[in-house]
Amino acid sequence: xxxxxxxxxxxxxxxxxxxxxxxxxxxxxxxxxxxxxxxxxxxxxxxxxxxxxxxxxxxxxxxxxxxxxxxxxxxxxxxxxxxxxxxxxxxxxxxxxxxxxxxxxxxxxxxxxxxxxxxxxxxxxxxxxxxxxxxxxxxxxxxxxxxxxxxxxxxxxxxxxxxxxxxxxxxxxxxxxxxxxxxxxxxxxxxxxxxxxxxxxxxxxxxxxxxxxxxxxxxxxxxxxxxxxxxxxxxxxxxxxxxxxxxxxxxxxxxxxxxxxxxxxxxxxxxxxxxxxxxxxxxxxxxxxxxxxxxxxxxxxxxxxxxxxxxxxxxxxxxxxxxxxxxxxxxxxxxxxxxxxxxxx
Length: 345
Ligand code: NCD
Ligand code: ZN
Description:
By secondary structure, the chain is of the alpha/beta class. It has one domain (10-308): Metal-dependent hydrolases (TIM Barrel). Helices cover 35% and strands 17% of the residues. The protein is built from twelve helices and 15 strands. It has helices at residues 20-33, 50-63, 84-92, 121-130, 150-165, 179-187, 198-202, 206-209, 226-236, 254-257, 272-282, 289-301; strands at 4-8, 12-15, 36-39, 71-77, 96-101, 133-136, 171-173, 192-196, 243-245, 309-313, 317-318, 323-325, 328-330, 338-339, 342-343. The strands form four sheets. It has an eight-stranded parallel sheet. Strands 1-10-15 form a three-stranded antiparallel sheet, covered by helices on one side. The radius of gyration is 19 Å and the shape is globular. The chain starts with a strand and ends with a strand. The model has no long low-confidence stretch (mean pLDDT 97). N-carbamoyl-L-aspartate binds at residues 16, 42, 107-108, 137, 219-220, 248, 250, 264-265. Residues 16, 42, 107-108, 137, 219-220, 248, 250, 264-265 line the site of N-carbamoyl-L-aspartate (NCD).
């Protein structure tokens, strides 16, 4: 039995840090585990310009604990009126690593998102030319489409057209939740990849709805049927370079999760690596973990892999029921459960 695993230091290719006190509370959890993270721009107001991203990056860096190496990689929130020149300048100045497409009203703080994907085609053309990665929240928002079908529908309505019109654009299909998305990404060329969250590897939609409504298992895109979860597990542990780690850690205080209209988002940053590792162990794929966590992401983004390493050891860790964030309760992913691995040291 394997009892320790040493891998290059992993990166998180999709998460939410928020801002202000919450940000200062959550950044240390991520910086403990990951060398870099792609930071989502869905603040209120969103991070839409190079100037805003530069300031936000400075605030994040100020929240990294002393002695910890961590680099936030910033994203530009695309809107109907994004200036391609500002985005290109931000990318060439090293401020932006990617740009994020939120369909308007798809998820938390996405009211300013893109109302019609074709409206940003001039921006996508520029991104393709300049090699700027497009991160996509792939869900349609139409009321007549069932929430469980919104990802698959997005592929047919928008993803295929984006890829066909911009064949050299690098696209990350974010936090995929369906076998449809796995199949789509596998059919595309090497310029199309996907991130997978720990929660979508662990739970199906029953975890949200059986035995009472479970707000801490609710995120967007919502967990789907078991067949989809199994397809995601197969993809993540396949060794394919197209799939990599993106936690989508999305902190919301307990008070706004446990309420009549609870926020979407799962706060998985505190035990993210431990959570993923449980899946790879269950699938008998510990040998594939480093590629998923530490190698595939940098290769896709054209960045160097980490020169640092971390060691994971088979020691049980108990996840608390609750954590304190700025004097308020927040419920972590796996609350109250025991995980089999922890980060050594
Ligand atoms: C995210 C958030 O809260 O910002 N929520 C979520 O359920 N994942 C937004 C997002 O990534 O969709
Ligand atoms: Zn997200």
